[in-house]
Design goal:
This protein has about 290 residues and is an alpha+beta fold. The protein has 2 domains: about 5-115, 2-Layer Sandwich (D-amino Acid Aminotransferase, Chain A, domain 1), CATH 3.30.470; about 125-285, Alpha-Beta Barrel (D-amino Acid Aminotransferase, Chain A, domain 2). It has 8 helices and 15 strands. The strands form 2 sheets. Strands 7, 8, 9, 10, 11, 12, 13, 14 and 15 form a 9-stranded mixed sheet that branches. It has a 6-stranded antiparallel sheet with strand order 2-1-6-5-3-4. The chain is globular. The two termini are about 25 Å apart. The relative contact order is 0.14.
Length: about 290
């Protein structure tokens, strides 16, 4: 059998995994999702991801048709059906099919979709030499328009920033918020190291509360590193001793150049390298 996809309560072949063209997830980006990783047969930080998924759904007043325990069971069943131990899991919930028009009352039967596959966020060599990135002109959505804490299917804001990065010949872009402070990248959270401290933008800066971000903050504190959530400017980025990004797909990846400016010594710094090693150790030895 080919890749099996969980769709609306059953496993189907990848080629048969289809939703209606009238699904409001397709028509309006009306839905939520999570990206999750499985390492050595165990799903990493699953409870945190499930909590964020249901919080996101509550934030857009979407009722997920599965209770969290049933959702977890469906994830494990999909991994098992595909015989995958190291995988990327994409969990999607749409508002469901209905009629044209924005009103959610025009839909019924929200769709739960679980895809388990492989992913390569960045080329392997970039983890050795570090990323070159830019700050872009596309800003994060104003929090009173759409909270960045909602992981919704509408990612056009991030996609436009990603296009800016591609046009500049780099793989990622840092987005600022409406006040000019650093928010996050198109798919990752941002950290800098300054005078031995870890600094990262706070939730109020307009960031998604990354699961990997939280793990790295925990790992840093366990090593006696001071971790500070504070507003950062581009100047803070430019003078940082080290910089790295975190995300479920990207894991932990060093940044060595921003807007053409070399960060630190132009290579992954000692704290970044230590945290990368600690994160890999956590993924190898976690309990699911």
């Amino acid at each position: 059998m080919g890749l099996q996809v969980y769709l609306d309560g059953r496993l189907v072949e990848k080629e048969d995994a289809k939703v209606s063209v009238f699904d409001h997830g397709l028509l309006y980006g009306d839905g939520v999702f999570e990206g999750i990783r499985s390492y050595n047969g165990k799903v990493f930080e699953l409870e945190a991801h499930i909590r964020r998924l249901y919080d996101s759904a509550k934030g857009i007043r979407l009722t997920i048709p599965l209770a969290p325990p049933a959702m977890i069971e469906a994830i494990h069943a999909t991994l098992k059906a595909n015989n995958l131990r190291d995988a990327y899991i994409r969990l999607v919930v749409t508002r469901g099919a209905g009629y044209l028009g924005l009103s959610p009352t025009k839909t019924s039967n929200p769709q739960v979709i679980i895809i388990t596959d492989q992913i390569e966020m960045y080329p392997p060599e970039v983890y050795d030499r570090g990323l070159e990135i830019i700050t872009c002109t596309t800003i994060r959505n104003h929090p009173n328009a759409l909270s960045a804490r909602i992981k919704s299917l509408n990612y056009l804001n991030n996609i436009l920033a990603k296009i800016e990065a591609m046009d500049a010949g780099v793989l990622e872009a840092i987005m600022l918020n409406h006040e000019g402070f650093v928010a996050e990248c198109t798919g990752d959270n941002v950290f800098i190291v300054r005078d031995g401290r870890l600094e990262t933008p706070p939730t109020a800066a307009g960031i998604l509360e990354g699961v990997t971000r939280a793990v790295v903050m925990e790992l840093g504190r366990a090593r006696g590193i001071e971790v500070i959530e504070k507003n950062l400017t581009r100047y803070d980025l430019y003078i940082a001793d080290e910089c790295f990004l975190t995300g479920t797909a990207a894991e932990v990846i060093p940044v060595t150049k921003i807007d053409g400016r070399t960060i630190g010594q132009g290579s992954a710094g000692p704290i970044t390298r230590d945290l990368i090693a600690a994160f890999h150790d956590r993924t190898r030895n976690h309990n699911g």
